[in-house]
Write a structure and sequence with these properties.
The protein has a domain at 95-265: Intergrase catalytic core (hpI Integrase, Chain A, Orthogonal Bundle). It has eleven helices and five strands. It has helices at residues 15-40, 46-81, 95-105, 109-121, 125-129, 169-181, 213-223, 230-242, 249-256, 261-265, 272-290, and strands at residues 136-138, 142-145, 160-163, 185-193, 196-204. Strands 1-2-3 form a three-stranded antiparallel beta sheet, covered by helices on one side. Strands 4-5 form a two-stranded antiparallel sheet. It is elongated. The termini are far apart.
Length: 291
């Protein structure tokens, strides 16, 4: 299974742009080709014909292609700066709140299963939608998923065991059975090689064959709200685990695959309950000293 060290950025044209492009551009290209092939080229000698073709290709590479690349880089830069345009969300949401939002979203089974997976496992969006049926084991009590080597140079952790009695897990069980029963499905997988982003179409028994990066963003905003993003559920899960008084860095690392403490700190949000607990502890310590 190919994995990437960075999550891919996928940008798509709007519906109107698609209609204009696929309706107009081919017609213009066919017209130009017809004129060149049947009207212009027959009047040229072989040498002159090669010169015209070389000039056209040179113009394309120096102008059209360079302008396209420049526009693409500008779009990527704008996307990067607007990634958290509503600010980083650091306050976790309760399970009851999350469940109510899921019910109001009216997702199809594949979409709902994907969001439940992000919620329970706190995985990166690509770590979730790149899972295949072979990564999952289903027992009488648990739905067990193996994320293998975590991305961004993460650790190799043991598979996560999610109780089948938890809400939404039965949907994941049915998706696993469906993926295993169907024929392998082609899907683009993005990865980095020598710091270059590449993609490859892989045929596999995908758990979520219709979900990629852009779809993941859309689903999170549909369920949680426009200010949220897929990585929030990772922060939400690790914050909840870290709120346990008996939690340790080893527990957080074993669950998430994050190796360094400095990286782990970025995923810990803030909790009103934990803040109150800290104040209660301070008050208790002060009372011992004052009385």
């Amino acid at each position: 299974m190919l994995t990437s060290s960075r999550a891919p950025v996928e940008l798509y044209m709007s519906r109107a742009d698609h209609i204009w492009f696929f309706a107009t551009v081919p017609l213009v290209l066919l017209t130009i080709f017809y004129i060149l092939h049947h009207r212009v080229m027959p009047k040229f000698s072989d040498q002159r014909r090669e010169s015209v073709i070389s000039t056209l290709f040179g113009y394309y590479r120096s102008n059209v292609h360079s302008n396209f690349v420049e526009q693409r880089l500008r779009m990527l830069e704008e996307h990067h700066h607007s990634k958290y345009k509503h600010g980083k969300q650091e306050h976790p949401i309760s399970f009851k709140d999350f469940q109510e939002r899921m019910q109001r979203a009216h997702l199809d089974p594949e979409e709902e299963g994907y969001i439940w997976l992000l919620y329970y496992c706190g995985a990166r969006k690509s770590e979730a939608y790149e899972r295949v049926a072979e990564d999952v084991q289903v027992t009488h009590e648990y739905w067990i998923i193996d994320f293998h080597q975590r991305k961004k140079h993460g650790a190799l952790v043991d598979p996560l065991e999610i109780p089948r009695s938890c809400p939404g897990v039965q949907i994941l069980v049915r998706l696993t059975e469906r993926a295993a029963a169907q024929r392998p499905w082609g899907k683009a997988v993005f990865y980095y090689e020598n710091r270059e982003r590449r993609s490859r179409i892989l045929r596999a028994h995908w758990l979520f064959p219709n979900i990629q990066s852009t779809k993941a963003w859309q689903l999170i905003k549909q369920v949680l709200g426009k200010e949220f993003y897929p990585h929030f559920l990772r922060l939400n899960r690790l914050t909840e685990i870290g709120s346990d008084p008996e939690a340790s860095l080893i527990r957080l690392k074993s669950f998430s695959g994050i190796k360094s403490v400095s990286s782990l700190e970025h995923y810990l949000g803030v909790s009103k309950t934990e803040q109150k607990g800290a104040l209660d502890w301070i008050e208790k310590q002060m009372s011992k000293q004052c009385y």
